[in-house]
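Chapter review: from sequence to fold.
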Amino acid sequence: MNNYNPKIKKFLDSFKAETATVPVVIDLLIQDLKSIGYPQPDIDEIVLSMDEALTNAIQETIRKEENIFYHTDSERREITVSYIITSDLFDTTIIDHGKGLDLLKSQKETPSSESVDYFNQLFNYSLNGKITGLKVRLNGQEIVLKGIGAGLKIMTAFMDSITIDLIDKEKFISNSISDFTDGTILNMKRKRRY
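The token string follows.
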């Protein structure tokens, strides 16, 4: 029996953590989105989100590499990209080997009513706010994440859901950033909108 379906595109590959990877993946993604019949507004928004996600994954992996002092180019760490595109859904996972999203720092930015600076914290929090559509898990438990950068805000503007898990060398999924943190698993999903 033939399982080929022209209305489904699947992609899985690993790439060196270098900036040249971004246009390679984006070009393949655009071709696949067009072949499924996605309209240009959907393509533009998906591509912008993927560009941000890939750039973040590469940057974090390069930063981690700089601290490890690899001796040969063949030892450079990679990122893994997979996606599935159907006629009505885009689902991607990007795995990097960076230092991980600093969840503890982000949690510390949540206003504390016991602080002498509580009202300033509330004001700053209201400007940054919680990002809807973003799910971050520590050991499988969802946590509230606030005060993060523009990249994730862009991705959440165009994706229906984002899940981030930390990779830990000892426990697989970590509960904090540590010397054992070995990257992130980012998953983004979006239903076709146009």
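Two observations follow directly from the output. Confidence is low (pLDDT under 50) at residues 70-74. The helical segments are 21-36, 40-68, 103-108, 118-128, 150-158.
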